[in-house]
Structures are given as C-alpha cells and as structure tokens.
Amino acid sequence: MSYPWEDWDHITKIDPDKDLVDGETFEDVCETGTDALEIGGTLDITEEKMERVIEATAKYDVPIYQEPSNPGVVIDDERLDGYLIPTVFNASDSFWITGAHKEWVRIEDGLDWDRTHTEAYIVMNPDSSVAEYTEADTDQSAEDVASFARVAEKMFGQKIIYVEYSGTYGDPEKVAAAHDALDDSTLFYGGGIHDYESAYEMGQHSDVVVVGNLLHDEGVDAVRETVEGAKDASAELVDAE
Ligand SMILES: CC(C)=CCC/C(C)=C/CC/C(C)=C/CC/C(C)=C/COP(=O)(O)OP(=O)(O)O
Ligand SMILES: O=P(O)(O)OC[C@@H](O)CO
Ligand SMILES: [Mg+2]
After folding, report:
1. Where is the signal peptide (predicted)?
2. Is 2 within a domain?
3. ipTM above 0.90, yes or no
4. Mean pLDDT per 10-residue section of the chain, whose length is 241 residues
5. Of 17, 57, 184, 195, which sits most exposed with the smallest number of CB within 10 A?
6. Is 19 annotated as a binding residue?
7. Does ligand 2 come within 6 angstroms of the Cβ of 167?
8. Which domain holds residue 81?
C-alpha cells in the first residue's frame, strides 16, 4: 500500500488560532509549492476557526489534513483529505499515547478509518507547549530517538514518525539517527525551520519537513524558500540512491 505522504517533501502547518501575515491569503499559502497543509495547534482551537481554514483552502489543489490536538476538536468535513492523529511515544501521561484515542473512539461512532492515520511523535523541545502538555520526556540521545523510531515502525506499525522540536531548531544528528533507523516509514521533521538553509539541512535528514510558526510570523515568501530548500535536499537524496 502506498500513502500520499511518501511523495511529500514539505508540509505547511496552519494554526487556526493564528492569523496570516497582513495582506496574505490562503491562496498565497497554497501557491508556495508546499505539498500538503496540516491544520492544527495545541491551544484554543475551536470548530469555527477550523472551519474557516478548511473553507479557505479546500478549493485549491493542495491536500488538507486535520491534525487534532484532542478528541474534542475533530471536524467531520468531507473536504478534508484525512486526519493525522498524533500519538506521543515519549509522553509520561499515557492519555497522549492511547488514552485520548480510546476516548475518541468511544464517543464517535462511524469513524472514517480509511482517512484516519497516526503520527508517532517524539517530542524533543522541553520548552514547547506540546512537551508540557504531554509531559514528554525530552531527554533523549540520538540512540534513544533512533530506538523510538524503530519501535514505532517495527513494533507498532507506524507509517509516520515525527521528530518534533516545535518552536526551536533541532539537533540534526538526532534527526538523522531517526532517519537511519527507519526502513519504509516516513520521517517528518518539524521545529524552527526558517529559511532555505535550515529546510535544506533538515531535508537531508528527514523525508518531510514541517513548517509552522514561519507562516504566521514571516509569511509566504519565507515559506516558499523553505519549500525550495526541502525540495533541493530531497532531489539530492534521490540522485544519491
Ligand atoms: C485522539 C485524538 C483525536 C487526539 C489526540 C491527539 C494527541 C495525542 C495530541 C498530543 C499533542 C500533539 C502532538 C499535538 C499535535 C499538534 C502540535 C504538536 C502542535 C504544536 O502546538 P503549538 O500550539 O504550536 O505549540 P508549541 O509550538 O508551543 O508546542
Ligand atoms: O512552528 P515550528 O517551529 O515551525 O514547528 C513546526 C511543527 O513541527 C509544529 O508542530
Ligand atoms: Mg508552534
């Protein structure tokens, strides 16, 4: 079976609680060359805010996925290509590993399993709200990160492994260790990507780079540069094979 993210190099993560830069539109976001949009954030996500982003982005060619931060914010909307449901492998509170998922499945009947996929997060920035929220143990060496990645792929069948440094640029050595540990699963990297160089570097050590804050802080021109960095790194990896 093949999955859409196997062809992606770059994702733009849109926080429905934050605005775009003045004068920019969601059409501009869709024209950056990014391969997919992930809509979600940790704080203050409401149904109205989610719907507003879906409404504004669904008409373009770029696939859109919701990434819910808790079961209460999932939107049932045919225009979404699917749902990317996090599970945090290094959370201390099991609610963020399987508990929230159990609650979700218990309250929702008729989940669309064909459009529902999981992302195995390894949360690495202790100062991020996602680390606090999930009580993640971020003190992980490169070997630890690689081992989590391998466990996620081989023992838990995860198709997407996500090394998450949300808000800060990560350690390329740890990201590379996760990448090397995987056979077929797709490695997402996110955190602090802010220009061509940073996207290019992490693009060399992962399959897909995820860009979040930059869109809301700097805007679409900056995001476009990161698309170029990620695409150039990916093209080189393909050439090297
Ligand atoms: C079962 C369902 C439907 C949901 C559970 C989902 C889980 C386990 C969520 C855990 C938290 C998580 C990994 C959320 C994903 C989104 C994310 C990392 C957002 C980053 O949040 P920001 O609001 O940008 O905050 P920081 O950058 O400060 O971390
Ligand atoms: O906001 P940034 O630091 O780009 O991080 C992107 C993403 O991994 C957040 O979940
Ligand atoms: Mg963030």
Report:
1. none
2. no
3. yes
4. 96 95 97 97 75 94 95 91 98 97 92 97 97 96 98 98 98 98 98 98 98 98 98 89 72
5. 184
6. no
7. yes
8. 7-240
